[in-house]
Amino acid sequence: MNATVLRAGWSRGVIELRQSFTNGAELVSHVLWPALMVATLFFVRDLPVGGLLLGALALPGILGMNAATGLISMSQQLTADREDGTLLRAKATPHGMPAYLIGKVISVSGGLLADLAIFLVPAVLLVEGLRIGPDSWPGLAWVLALGLVATLPLGAVLGSVFTTARAQGLVQLPFLALVGISGIFYPITSLPEWLQGIAQLFPLYWMGLGMRAALLPDAAAAVEIGQSWRHLETAGVLAAWAVLGLLLAPVVLRRMARRESGSTVAARRERALRRVG
Amino acid sequence: MTRSKGLVLDVEGLRMRYGAHDVLHDVTFQARHGEVVALLGPNGAGKTTTIEILEGFRVRSRGRVSVLGTDPAHGDERWRARLGIVLQSWRDHGKWRVREFLAHLGTYYAPYATPGIPRPWDADELIERVGLSGHAGKKLKTLSGGQRRRLDVAIGLVGRPELLFLDEPTTGFDPQARSGFHELVRDLAAARRTTILLTTHDLDEAEKLADRILVLNGGRIVADGTAAELARRIAGEDEVRWTYDGRRHVERTPDSTAFARELFARHGDGVRELEVHRASLEQTYLALVREAEGAAG
Boundaries of each ABC transporter domain copy (chain B) (predicted)? Predict the structure, then answer.
């Protein structure tokens, strides 16, 4: 990969990021979800859970969950870009595909970081019982970084597998189900063990746990599985998903890109128009 | 068969099969450097399939294909940088602005500049060239159909391609936009740097722009030549109209001059309002398609 590709990818990412913050509809979506989560925290902040306040417990969980939504945005954008011919345009341009992907990773993760900040700043002011010190940030940074590497390539894979925006919607249902069983809003130890087992297979639970480890006092580990933050396991599971995603994504993306042509885009467009009509 | 050096497109025995169905049977044609070639044919004739194989977007079943000296199934990025592609309907990058998008795409071609071919084409110059100067700051999704089409052509040109594919480029153009577009293509052709392969339904357009016309029907090239050659190839029938004795007459004949002489010899000055219409390319084309369909059926 040469410097031109990196530069082109970077400038794509920056331009798309700017577009998503200067366009009314997208700006609303950047603010709406964090605002809803802040409001949720506001109402539950003083509920006691095992010696802790639910506000403090849920804040890092929400942070982890929001970080994992990068998977959803990645797959949605890929599907949409395929439907409108953006991917085909990349294919018709020399080195267009790698630049497209670099740009997408930059714009999705950049937008995500902004969304996390929009949530975190007011939420921290609202909630009591967090333990935020100088060592919180490195802890938060590695979980976030590893979490993104674990989820974004997966998002790209899902975005390549589903051919229409409508089918894409199906990705969100299992994601929401996972949110329900991953101890985001309430300690996972209150769930039946088989559900805990399922939740621990996926990155979402570990991203929440890692965030709690970074932002809560050590005593809060009492409500976790094994009464421990399980740093090693967190790193291990996220790294495993990262490796899987990074191995799978290039293969699936290449296969998907190979099949793109003017007539496949046109046919998809016609199908979409028929659905509307 | 040796491949001569000036050939930009060299296609021999191209076949495309989907399952048990052949879309292209045996497509053979060539295009020389700087030529404008029109690929003409009814819907479903295989025009888009042919062009997608040449663009490297589709892998052929059989045959030999060389595009700028390279097999498109194995074309690398350097090869891709020498192509310009304008598809039938683009609607990508709706949130990008015209100038921003052209300038961005141009950066991909910069490494492929040569002393003879400066790449990319300057965005502002190109915007002016396709008549979008007043819209440079607009978002792509706010452009009208004709404006979007002109932008697509500009995008196809931004890398200063040596070979440009135009798939039905003027669909949805008003007459003014169409003639502006024709002028652009003629300018490109006059510079003799860009070889152009365009598909169209519009015979008039093919006749105006193309040095050579290929007629594709039922997955075969059924005619290949200049507009005049094609008209000659098919025994085109002229149409003769006249009035005699207050009644209108219409007759079709292969030799309108002899027919008119005969007419005057028979009726003398009684012949009025004589009109002779030469066989048009349109009639030639329809005759070709009918002929090919008759042969297939």
Answer: 9-243
Separation between Cα atoms, residue B171 and residue B191, nearest integer Å? 25
Ramachandran category for residue A260: left, alpha or beta (phi over 0 → left; psi -120 to 50 → alpha): beta
Å between A113 CA and nearest CA of chain B? 21
Residue of B nearest to A266 (CA): B89
- Chain centroid to Cα A185, Å, comes to 17
Q: What is the pLDDT of residues A226-267, one digit of tens each?
A: 999 999 999 999 999 999 999 999 899 988 888 888 888 888
Residues of A numbered 93-112 whose beta carbons fall under 8 angstroms of chain B's beta carbons: which are they? 93-96, 99
Distance separating alpha carbons of residues A221 and A207, to the nearest angstrom: 15
Among candidates A8, A94, A265 on the partner chain, residue whose Cβ is nearest the Cβ of B77: A94
**Record: contact B57-A260, CB cut-off 8 A:** yes
Q: B237: exposed, middle or buried (C-beta count within 10 Å: 0-12, 13-18, 19+)?
A: middle
Burial level of A125, CB count in 10 A (0-12/13-18/19+)?
Answer: exposed
Write down the domain spans for chain B.
7-231, 235-296
Closest CA to A263 of B89, B197, B198, B148: B89
Report the distance separating Cα B179 and Cα A193, nearest Å.
73
The answer to whether A91 faces chain B, any CB pair under 8 Å, is yes
Name residues whose C-beta falls within 8 Å of residue B138's C-beta, 6 or more positions apart in sequence.
B97, B98
Q: Which amino acid is at B15?
A: R
CA nearest to A258 within chain B: B57
Grade residue B2 by pLDDT with cuts at 50, 70 and 90: very low
**Interchain proximity B110–A4, CB inside 8 Å:** yes
- Per-residue pLDDT tens over the stretch B188-224: 888 878 999 999 888 888 888 999 999 998 888 988 9
CB-based contact B108 A260, cutoff 8 Å: no
Instruction: Answer whether B80 sits within 8 Å of A94, measured CB to CB.
Output: yes
Contact B81 A263 (CB under 8 A): no
Do the Cβ atoms of B95 and A88 come within 8 Å? no
Q: What is the ipTM of this complex?
A: 0.88
Cα separations in angstroms, A189 against A40, A96, A194, A195, B233: 21, 47, 11, 10, 85
Q: Which CATH number fits domain B7-231: 3.40.50.300, 3.40.50.720, 3.40.50.150, 3.30.300.30?
A: 3.40.50.300
- Domain range summary for chain A, segments of one domain joined by +: 3-276
Could you say which of A15, A85, A266 has the minimum Cβ distance to residue B104?
A: A15
Instruction: Answer whether residue A131 shows pLDDT above 70.
Output: yes
From the list A99, A91, A95, the residue with the least C-alpha distance to A260 is: A91
Contacts of B52 in chain A (CB under 8 A): 261-263
> Using an 8 Å Cβ cutoff, are B44 and B27 in contact?
no
Neighbours of B137 (CB within 10 A): 9
Which residues, 6 or more positions from B2, have their beta carbon under 8 angstroms from its beta carbon?
none
A190 contact B CB<8A: no
User: Cβ B91–A95 below 8 Å, yes or no?
Assistant: no
Q: Is the pLDDT of residue B297 over 50?
A: no
CA–CA separation, B64 and B69 (whole Å): 11
